[in-house]
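Reopening: Zn-dependent oxidoreductase, NADPH:quinone reductase still failing for me.
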Amino acid sequence: MKAFALGSKAGSFDLREIDIADPSPSTDQVLVRVHAVGVTPTELLWYSSTHNKDGSARANAVPGHEFSGIVESIGSQATDFVPGDAVFGMNDWFLDGATADFCVASEKDIVAKPASLSHTDAAAIPIAALTGWQGLVDHGRIKAGDRVLIVGAGGSVGLMAVQIAVMHGCRVIASASPSQADTLKELGCEHVLDYKTQAFEDHLKDLDVVFDAIGSDTLARAKPLLVEGGRMVTIAADPKTATIR
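Support: Ran it again with your exact input. Result attached.
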């Protein structure tokens, strides 16, 4: 099959087209004919892009670990899908990704694609949605009634975070570009602050959770706005330089 792979030498990132063997699903995997693939720029920095699970150097890694497509075949113990099913999801970082004609994935890492969702839109969801869920639900411990500020709400993760917070019954305030205001209000935000002209610390207080998708000085600016026991979660701050006053 055709695939786009990273450099022929470990650590090089010249994306190029190559011919490789079609993958075969193991017992609990499915083989997916790829219709669309999500591209994550930071994937070039992932350990799995340059190393195998055993720590050895990895060359010719096929990137793109979020995708949408049609089930081509299934492993001997796979029971959730049948050939012809439309699915989307992700696969293990150490497997070849979906910048290829086919990819394999564990059944637990994919779901049925709604008919109302295009393959292109579906392929853009998995990593952003997982990041938002882990940040708000697993670490932010959001609950109904929480006042949640999402900084960088107009980005891919931010848009997912807004919907996750609204789904959990939170009162959501967004800091984003004004061009995104109508969309964010349609998704359930109570207020949308223009990040260029409305510093959120000048307008807000008594926040239960702050979700930061921007980095920079967001945490330092947000900490004084939290109620006692409030939580801050960041997916963007540099752990070496971030400060919290």
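Residues 127-234 form a domain with the Rossmann fold fold (CATH 3.40.50.720). If you still see a failure, please send the error message rather than a screenshot.
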